[in-house]
């Protein structure tokens, strides 16, 4: 009885569904998402699109405005300030991406197994991640002061020639920001890689070692392919976070000296709220948004492509 | 209110008003100087600005009154006591479309303030009679391990105010109508010798060690503590800074001076530039309460009390009043009428002042030159003037 009763059920499954059936099943599978979808479209996309139209105006935040075509974009790409902000944003984003991933991966590999105090050290290294970027930046601003701990240390070890006004030096100031960004977020990347490393069987590494693979070869051909999903996540998150850098710049240098560390995000804020150039600020926002979307898509395409290949 | 190292003077008077009028209470929101204009504009546009708020007169700052009046954010004060607190020379600071929109609450001389106790210890004679005197004193302070002047080189307002004080005797004393001429396009920053000399003097003072080590990275919040503690002898600020210095270190004496011209010329900026405005979007009851508070604040007794707290001059007394002790060295500037409202208050956009402040930092770090800074200011002016 059980077999015979199952047969019609199997037949029902195999029978091609009629068009209305398919429609109702499809609707049943996503209707519950409609409210969230509508809210998401309204809050994210419609709001951004409406805001984006101001990029083509000369609105000053108050009063009437006129449409000025692509004038704001021409100003961004033709002026030193706009071009500098784009270049600084890219420098910080890619420096942040590379720095956090290199140090995060090295720390994860070092603290994955073997080290006795690894659980304690993981907590210590992860701790800066939970702090406010502003709070961290103000602490580092103290460290970078002309009479601060960094210059005092350099003086005490005979490196007086290395002492400088770190936050107002046209060359070093952008590196000071990058160091703070990398220092604070390395712990997060380390945790992502540790999660990936937890899924790598120790036997595989041991087998490769028996086959004569050295440490680098074991990492290159055994470990890294297995933790590639962690790499995709870590690199995507860090790249987007790097492109949006704002807090650290405002707290450490305010975009100075003489605009040497201005980024798109700081310029958006200043032009919009400090100078009341809402149209120009909206154009900068649009450039930043497009930059994040394009670079993130390229980066995800490259890394996920390699993932499929591996 | 703008946040400083001490409580805002208006907030102090507001407490007194609440004591006299227990049904009126104030919730004071202090905002750092560097962000004040940005925060205020954002709040006004977001509809959550305070009922009474601080603004500066004219239109050259991010928190200047006139653009806000033009946008309809302020209550018309034309029929209140506010109109009586302006002189003919200063009315332009609060007037738009024939109406008065703000109430000045003190009279602000923009000065070069010094810790007199420390200056005496170092044997520095104040006031300085010429730029050479200043440069000599820079060397004296340096030898004692101090700096003569404190400069917040990473902060636009402090760089801007410092340059304007140097420009007072180099631009505006010779040509008090320079702003009017610039508005008409008859002069430019780049072709005015006095502006070039002012910026060149800042660079010279920096190179001769007049400012603290790392002045190009200095922040404004450190100025008052440094001068009060005596690690710096003085700095450039509104005269009200004396009040802050006294509160931080009451054991020392402080004095306001005017920075001298190259050959001892005398001229300074002084104006009723600190003002209060009422939020046009507040409900009527709160606007009425705000108007009552402003009227109370304008009474001579309370105006004098506020000036005593702020360290500036009473708005009721104006420039002709008997001056407090700290202004002993600039009293003749007022009696001889060698002053005018702060230069940038008439500039058409805050971006010009910002270009000046940013440019000064670039000059100190060697990233730009005087001519480029002045040309950038002209470009910002022309763009703003349309």
From TrEMBL, chain A:
One Pfam family this sequence matches: BPD_transp_1
Gene3D superfamilies to which the protein is assigned, alphabetical: MetI-like (1.10.3720.10)
Transmembrane segments: 30-56, 90-111, 123-143, 174-200, 221-240, 278-302
Keyword Transcription: no
Membrane-protein topology: Multi-pass membrane protein
Positions of the ABC transmembrane type-1 domain: 86-299
UniProt keyword annotations, A-Z: Cell membrane, Membrane, Transmembrane, Transmembrane helix, Transport
Compartment list: Cell membrane
PROSITE patterns: ABC_TM1
Extent of the signal sequence: none
Recorded family membership: Belongs to the binding-protein-dependent transport system permease family.
Protein name (Swiss-Prot/TrEMBL): Sugar ABC transporter permease
Organism: Naasia aerilata
Gene field: msmF_3
TrEMBL record, chain B:
Keyword field contains Transport: yes
InterPro entries for the chain: Bact_solute-bd_prot1, SBP
One matching Pfam family: SBP_bac_8
Keywords tagged on the record: Transport
SUPFAM superfamilies the UniProt entry points to: Periplasmic binding protein-like II
Family stated for the protein in its record: Belongs to the bacterial solute-binding protein 1 family.
Full protein name: Sugar-binding protein
Annotated source species: Naasia aerilata
Phylogenetic lineage: Bacteria, Bacillati, Actinomycetota, Actinomycetes, Micrococcales
């Amino acid at each position: 009885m059980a077999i015979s009763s199952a047969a019609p059920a199997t037949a029902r499954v195999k029978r091609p569904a009629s068009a209305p059936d398919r429609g109702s099943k499809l609707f049943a599978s996503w209707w519950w998402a409609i409210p969230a979808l509508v809210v998401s479209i309204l809050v994210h996309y419609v709001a951004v699109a409406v805001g984006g139209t101001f990029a083509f105006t000369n609105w000053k935040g108050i009063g009437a405005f006129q449409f000025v075509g692509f004038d704001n974009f021409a100003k961004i790409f033709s002026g030193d300030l706009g071009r500098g902000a784009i270049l600084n944003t890219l420098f910080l984003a890619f420096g942040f991406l590379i720095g956090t991933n290199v140090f995060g991966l090295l720390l994860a590999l070092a603290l994955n197994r073997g080290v006795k105090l690894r659980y304690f050290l993981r907590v210590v290294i992860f701790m800066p991640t939970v702090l406010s970027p502003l709070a961290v930046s103000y602490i580092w601003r103290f460290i970078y002061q002309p009479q601060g701990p960094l210059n005092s240390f350099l003086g005490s070890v005979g490196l007086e020639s290395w002492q400088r006004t770190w936050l107002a030096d046209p060359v070093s100031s952008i590196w000071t920001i990058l160091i703070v960004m990398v220092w604070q977020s390395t712990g997060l990347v380390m945790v992502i890689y540790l999660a990936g490393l937890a899924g790598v069987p120790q036997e595989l590494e041991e087998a490769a070692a028996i086959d004569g693979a050295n440490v680098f070869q074991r990492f290159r051909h055994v470990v890294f392919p297995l933790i590639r999903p962690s790499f995709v996540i870590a690199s995507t998150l860090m790249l987007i976070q790097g492109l949006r850098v704002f807090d650290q710049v405002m707290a450490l240098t305010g975009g100075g000296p003489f605009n040497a560390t201005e980024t798109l995000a700081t310029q958006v804020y200043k032009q919009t709220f400090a100078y009341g150039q809402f149209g120009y600020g909206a154009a900068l926002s649009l450039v930043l948004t497009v930059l994040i979307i394009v670079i993130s898509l390229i980066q995800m395409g490259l890394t996920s492509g390699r993932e499929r290949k591996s | 209110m703008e946040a400083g190292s001490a409580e805002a003077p208006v907030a102090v008077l507001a407490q007194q008003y609440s004591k006299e009028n227990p049904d009126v209470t104030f919730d004071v929101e202090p905002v750092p100087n560097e962000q004040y204009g940005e925060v205020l504009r954002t709040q006004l546009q977001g509809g959550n600005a305070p009922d009474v708020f601080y603004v500066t007169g004219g239109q050259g700052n991010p928190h200047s009154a006139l653009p806000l009046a033009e946008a309809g954010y302020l209550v018309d004060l034309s029929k209140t006591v506010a109109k009586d607190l302006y002189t003919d020379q200063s009315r332009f600071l609060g007037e738009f479309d024939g109406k008065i929109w703000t109430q000045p609450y003190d009279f602000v001389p923009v000065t070069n303030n010094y810790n007199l106790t420390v200056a005496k210890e170092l044997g520095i004679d104040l006031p300085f009679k010429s730029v050479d005197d200043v440069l000599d004193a820079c060397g004296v302070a340096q030898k004692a391990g101090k700096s003569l002047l404190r400069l917040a080189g990473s902060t636009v307002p402090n760089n801007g105010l410092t340059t304007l004080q140097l420009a007072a005797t180099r631009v505006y004393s010779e040509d008090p109508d320079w702003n009017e001429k610039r508005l008409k396009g008859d002069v430019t920053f780049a072709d005015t010798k006095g502006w070039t000399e002012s910026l060149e003097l800042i660079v010279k003072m920096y190179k001769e060690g007049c400012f603290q080590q790392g002045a190009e990275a200095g922040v404004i919040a450190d100025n008052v503590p440094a001068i009060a503690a005596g690690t710096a002898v003085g700095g450039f600020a509104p005269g009200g800074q004396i009040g802050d210095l006294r509160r931080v270190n009451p054991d020392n004496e402080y004095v306001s001076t005017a920075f001298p011209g190259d050959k001892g010329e005398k001229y300074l900026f002084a104006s009723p530039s600190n003002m209060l405005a009422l939020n046009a979007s507040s409900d009527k009851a709160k606007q009425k309460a705000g108007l009552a508070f402003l009227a109370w604040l304008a009474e001579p007794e309370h105006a004098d009390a506020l000036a005593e707290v702020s360290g500036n001059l009473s708005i009721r007394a104006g420039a002709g009043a008997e001056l407090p002790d700290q202004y002993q060295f600039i009293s003749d500037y007022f009696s001889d009428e060698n002053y005018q409202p702060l230069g940038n208050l008439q500039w058409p956009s805050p971006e010009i002042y910002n270009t000046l402040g940013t440019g000064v930092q670039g000059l100190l770090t060697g990233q730009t030159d005087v001519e480029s800074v002045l040309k950038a200011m002209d470009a910002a002016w022309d763009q703003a003037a349309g």
